[in-house]
Design brief:
This protein is an alpha/beta fold and 479 residues long. The chain is 68% helix and 7% strand. The protein contains 17 helices and eight strands. Strands 5-4-1-6 form a four-stranded parallel sheet, with helices on both faces. Helix 14 runs parallel beside helix 17. The protein is elongated. The model has no long low-confidence stretch (mean pLDDT 83).
Length: 479
């Protein structure tokens, strides 16, 4: 194969059961830019069995030519079968450039083709262009963080949006850490009303800045997803500013030892870490559940991902009173034990759990009766609203269990047994991850079935937490 005779831009259209995967179709968009820049044709390579849908979609997405290889032997991906027939096409038609999606099969096929053709391979590209002076294709790829994201996201457009968002959102970590310290202070001194005020300030700031920076309002530039990230960072910064002003204006700094810098106390630090390190890991694992969930859903398609994001927004709103009561349980249990009232811990948890359940019962009733109205807040697309309703019902049922499970679980953390809380969370997360990988990635079940993982998660959390409080000797914990 001589480079001088090479022509056309090829895109491999990966398919599953005859249906094209979105990554290949999205690459046709990138391929079109290259083909126009090189003044060559854009060609789709379709390999599989019963791939009429893939052929039709490739043509709709702008392919000038479509090379089709069909047969029973190509029903399922095989490196040898796909690689050999792809190489025969290359030897016959001499493509200039080959684009392959960074899926598991795509990585395998791309490396086999590159080695066999003795040509270069650039993995995990984020941008493609044609050098106007030389006519060569220019490939851009991330140096570190993007590689990790490439393993998790198969859609090209979602990947690009995610990386653009993270490039700016990462600066919010500094503000987040300080915010957590202020929240811990006000929870510890039982002045939790200020947290509500702070949340309102941060939310309003975020909404206004989102509107201004995403859509370019109030004389600010239109920045899209980048604007959303910057708005979130600035909202967290406004939260710190609020906390600083409020604390200096209303809190007795001397009473809490905040009027002077303290000397470093290694013994105190170790005592704090002996409890908090398990809590940190527990929260990390708790957040990881959604991470695993969205990695699985992203592979179902962009439609399913849109439904998951909308329904998760409703889920987060429903969680607000639950998380507030769970945090209250943590503080009150700690206070009860500190005052020598261990015998009051279980009645206290039961009372808050009942209160939390009845509040959630009312919220769930409204959500289940008027799901279309709730969904219309997030989207005006009628079809998307209809498709999202079953997932809302699943989440409503899960929230009834969550209203009790979160309270009981936080009661364990309130006793100071954070190691036990971490163990329970770990067991639950392992089952959670296995379940979502099986139904989401393996079975590719509908999105509403994927959301049943929340029912499984909270059921396991409630059962294991209740058994621990009833059977374990948590009363003997010394801090």
């Amino acid at each position: 194969m001589s480079f001088d005779t090479c022509k056309d831009v090829w895109v491999f259209i990966e398919s599953f059961q005859g249906q094209p995967k979105s990554v290949g179709l999205e690459l046709l968009g990138q391929g079109r830019k290259l083909a126009d820049g090189l003044k060559q044709k854009l060609c789709a390579i379709v390999i599989g069995k019963d791939v009429d849908a893939a052929i039709k979609e490739s043509a709709a997405y702008g392919a000038d030519k479509i090379y089709v290889i069909q047969g029973d032997e190509y029903e399922n991906y095989s490196a040898d079968a796909y690689g050999n027939v792809f190489l025969k096409l290359c030897e016959k038609y001499d493509p200039n450039t080959i684009l392959v999606g960074a899926t598991v099969n795509g990585r395998d096929l791309g490396s086999k083709i590159a080695v066999s053709l003795r040509t270069g391979l650039t993995a995990d590209c984020t941008a493609l262009s044609v050098d106007e002076d030389t006519g060569n294709v220019v490939w851009e790829r991330p140096a570190f963080g993007g590689n990790i994201m490439r393993l998790l996201v198969s859609s090209e457009s979602i990947y690009e949006g995610t990386m653009e968002f993270l490039d700016w959102r990462i600066y919010g970590f500094f503000f987040s850490f300080i915010n957590v310290m202020f929240r811990a202070l006000y929870i510890g001194i039982t002045r939790t009303k200020v947290l509500t005020i702070n949340a309102i300030v941060m939310a309003l700031t975020n909404v206004v800045l989102d509107y201004a920076l995403i859509f370019g309002k109030f004389g600010l530039p239109e920045m899209g997803i980048k604007g959303a990230a910057i708005a979130s960072v600035l909202a967290e910064a406004s939260s710190i500013l609020f906390f600083v002003i409020y604390t200096y204006a209303t809190v007795d700094l001397k009473k809490y030892g905040m009027n002077r810098l303290r000397t470093f106390d290694p013994a105190l630090l170790m005592r704090i870490l002996s409890i908090s390190c398990f809590t940190m890991l527990q929260y990390f694992l708790s957040m990881a559940t959604w991470f695993v969930f969205f990695v699985a859903v992203e592979r179902l398609g962009q439609r399913e991902l849109a439904i998951a994001n909308i329904v998760r927004s409703i889920y987060v709103v429903l969680l607000i009173p639950v998380n507030a009561l769970a945090t209250t349980t943590n503080s009150l249990v700690s206070n009860a034990i500190g005052a020598g009232g261990i015998q009051h811990v279980m009645p206290l948890i039961n009372k808050i759990a009942r209160f939390s359940f009845f509040i959630m019962l009312g919220l769930v009733a409204v959500s289940a009766l008027f799901p279309q109205f709730l969904l219309s807040i997030y989207t005006s697309e009628a079809a998307l609203i209809t498709e999202s309703v079953p997932s809302v019902y699943v989440i409503c049922f899960a929230m009834l269990i969550a209203s009790v499970a979160n309270v009981v679980f936080n009661g364990i953390s309130g006793t100071g047994n954070t190691q036990a809380a971490l163990l329970l969370e770990t067991i639950t997360i392992i089952i959670y991850g296995s379940y979502i990988i099986f139904i989401g990635m393996w079975l590719k079940a509908p999105i509403e079935i994927c959301f049943t993982i929340e029912i499984v998660y909270y059921s396991l959390l409630l059962i294991t937490s209740y058994i621990y409080l009833k059977k374990a000797k948590w009363q003997n914990k010394k801090i």
